[in-house]
Specification:
The complex is a heterodimer of chains A (225) and B (420). Chain A is built from seven helices and ten strands. Chain A has 225 residues and is an alpha/beta fold. Chain A has a six-stranded mixed beta sheet with strand order 6-7-8-3-9-10. In chain A, strands 2-1-4-5 form a four-stranded antiparallel beta sheet, with helices on one face. Chain B is of the alpha+beta class and 420 residues long. Chain B folds into two domains: 194 residues, no CATH class; 191 residues, no CATH class. Chain B starts with a helix and ends with a helix. Classes of the chains: A alpha/beta (225), B alpha+beta (420). Chain B: Its main location: membrane.
Chain lengths: 225, 420
């Protein structure tokens, strides 16, 4: 099985207000088609790790590989491009652009990538929305739909460029149990039907237990399985 | 790779959903540019009118013979008193002729000079206008009228009749407006003039001349050069003044000094004649530009403020755009293009408003004795000011947009998303 994401000896310090060693020598990988979750107490560094893995945070030591290619040390422009093309991200809060319609929100990353024509992108975006059972909301303003729906739109947006890996930072943390279950089922379906790799940071033990693999973190280290 | 279509799309959506701020920012630019155009058109129009009033009637270089005392008194040439300290009381002006010596060769020389647009000979004669038993003192200027038309816009000041009429009539006269009024004369009538020697000549009034300066209009009239020479009983080379017009006004001083030396004649340049006038002109221009630049800077700060606020409001949007693969430069361009769009729309509207206000002022009646050809307020529709206006709008919005957009470029998405 191919490795999608690999971290080798990642260390990170917070320098302000005092030097604090957040991540200590983290090494692990995510295989293609694997649904992994990261668990741990608040402040153990799991979100920090996720943002490093997402390439948004570049202030760390160690090496990060995406699709077996080293991404550490690339400049911001290339990293933006990599995020755009290979990484889908779902946050605790949906972070949709409220002035845009649902389908425009979904289309934006694909327009930025610019590999497909407008028509193709519309078609793809509609397809992703349909897959998540929210196709009927396409024309609505993003600020006019419910919380659960927003999170599904955010997932559709993360998927629009068919990324190598989908990352989630507490994607169900802000949802009621019904919608949380819904999101979990969507992730599971994506893994099973599309062979997508997923890496999700969560507090929810029930959610984590049903994933392929749980990575437990404590005080900036990964505990052995 | 930058996908401008996407960037403009986002910028457009931001502008349209924040219509109020957009309109406020654009109006700031519109008023700034509109006021600039109106002010500058009106002020330069007014300046141009005043320039014309004075400068058209003043030659760039005026050649004449000055009545003045000799530089060297005879006693200084007497060798026995060479080393003495000579004091001469009651020095009198030198007896010299009023006519310019060798006037015709000088004229020919000037007309061949490339820097000279034209040289017009004049003969200034002291005369009396006779109305019944009343004699009014004044002067009659013999001119080559068609040359004057070409060089000094005399036709603007001929309120009745035409320069051609004078050119065609050997005994014609363009009578000063004040004189015509005093003597109740109008074109077609005859007026009798008398020379200092007492010879009387009848002349036919072919037109009325009004300079706008009452003293001048009460004394000065124009006739053909040849007519005046004949009245005075002088030869055809009798010329008292030569008015030179140059292609480039700034060469006047140098030219005057050179002519003085070359022909031993008095030459007065336009700067000398109108020194205080130019100072006034410069200060008016300075005020115009100071006010305009202030207006535009205020407009620029308006844009800066609004974009700054927009960026604070859109912090999360910026973070998410960056998280989904937009680079810092893309984000900067989104906000820059908003600033530029505001600048272009506001600027163009400003030009239209400026043009509208200028035309409005242009239509307001403005009648003055001083300027017989002007009936409404003067406006200068120089397209250059419109180019400057829109350029300044773009530059100021560019700068006003650059600083906030630079901030947007630097926003760290992780900090925003994690809420720290």
């Amino acid at each position: 099985m191919n490795t999608v994401l690999e971290a080798k000896n990642i260390n990170k310090h917070f320098r302000k207000p005092v030097d604090f060693h957040v991540l200590k020598d983290i090494s692990f990988n995510v295989k293609k088609g694997e649904f992994a979750s990261i668990m741990g107490k608040s402040g153990c560094g799991k979100s920090t790790l996720l943002y490093i893995l997402s390439t948004m945070d570049t202030d760390y030591e160690g090496n990060l590989y995406l699709n077996e290619e080293l991404v550490t040390g690339k400049d911001h422009k290339e990293l933006s491009r990599i995020r755009n093309e290979h990484i889908g991200f779902v946050f605790q809060f949906h972070y949709l652009l409220s002035e845009f319609s649902v389908i425009e929100n979904v289309m934006l990353p694909a327009k930025k990538l610019g590999l497909k024509s407008e028509e193709e992108i519309i078609h793809d975006a509609q397809q992703k929305l349909d897959m998540l059972n929210i196709g009927n909301l396409a024309k609505k303003r993003a600020s006019r739909i419910s919380g659960g729906e927003k999170q599904r739109v955010a997932i559709a947006r993360a998927l629009i460029n068919n990324p190598s890996i989908l990352m989630g930072d507490e994607p169900t943390g802000n949802l009621d149990s019904y919608n949380a279950e819904n999101v979990f089922q969507i992730f599971k379906k994506l893994k099973e039907e599309e062979g997508l790799s997923l890496l999700v940071v969560t507090h929810d033990i029930d959610f984590a237990k049903r994933t392929d693999r749980i990575i437990v973190m404590e005080d900036g280290r990964i505990l052995p399985d | 790779m930058i996908n401008w279509k996407v960037i403009f799309g986002i910028a457009k959506t931001h502008l349209l959903t924040k219509m109020k701020s957009t309109v406020t920012a654009s109006l700031g630019v519109t008023f700034g540019i509109g006021a600039y155009i109106t002010l500058v058109s009106f002020m330069t129009g007014l300046n141009g009118m005043l320039d014309d009033l004075i400068l058209n009637q003043t030659p760039h270089v005026h050649l004449y013979n000055e009545i003045e005392p000799s530089e060297e008194q005879p006693i200084e040439k007497f060798t026995p008193f060479e080393d003495a300290w000579n004091i001469v009381h009651s020095v009198k002006p030198k007896q010299s002729q009023r006519k310019i010596h060798n006037a015709v060769p000088i004229l020919n020389y000037l007309r061949e000079d490339e820097k000279v647009k034209g040289a017009a000979p004049q003969l200034n004669a002291q005369i009396f206008y006779i109305s019944g038993s009343i004699e009014l003192g004044g002067n009659l200027i013999g001119v080559n009228i068609m040359e004057e038309v070409r060089l000094s816009n005399i036709q603007d000041y001929i309120v009745e009749g035409s320069p051609q009429a004078l050119n065609n009539n050997e005994n014609g006269i363009l009578l000063g407006a004040g004189l015509a009024k005093k003597m109740s004369l109008s074109p077609g009538d005859r007026v009798q003039i008398s020379t200092v020697q007492g010879d009387i000549f009848p002349l036919k009034i072919v037109g009325i001349y009004q300079s706008g300066l009452a003293d001048v209009d009460n004394a000065r009239s124009f006739a053909n050069l040849k007519t005046v020479q004949r009245i005075l009983g002088e030869a055809e080379n009798y010329i008292t003044d030569i008015n030179v017009k140059l292609h480039n006004l700034s060469e006047a001083i140098l030219m005057a000094r050179q002519l003085e030396k070359q022909f031993q004649i008095k030459a007065r340049d336009i700067k000398e004649a109108n020194a205080q006038f130019e100072t006034g002109s410069n200060i008016r221009n300075l005020i115009t530009y100071a006010v305009s630049v202030t207006l535009l800077i205020v407009a620029g700060f308006g844009i800066y403020n609004i974009l700054n606020m927009l960026i604070y409001e859109k912090m999360k949007d910026i973070a998410i755009l960056k998280a989904t693969g937009f680079s810092g430069f893309d984000v900067q361009m989104i906000f820059m293009s908003q600033a530029i769009i505001i600048g272009v729309i506001g600027g163009l509207l400003g030009l239209i408003i400026g043009f509208g206000l200028s035309s409005l002022i242009d239509g307001i009646a403005f009648e003055t004795e001083a300027l017989p050809t002007i009936t409404t307020y003067p406006i200068n529709y120089n397209p250059g000011y419109y180019v400057i206006g829109i350029t300044f709008a773009l530059i100021s919005t560019f700068i006003a947009g650059y600083l906030p957009s630079k901030k947007a470029k630097r926003i760290d998405p992780v900090r925003i998303i994690r809420g720290t």
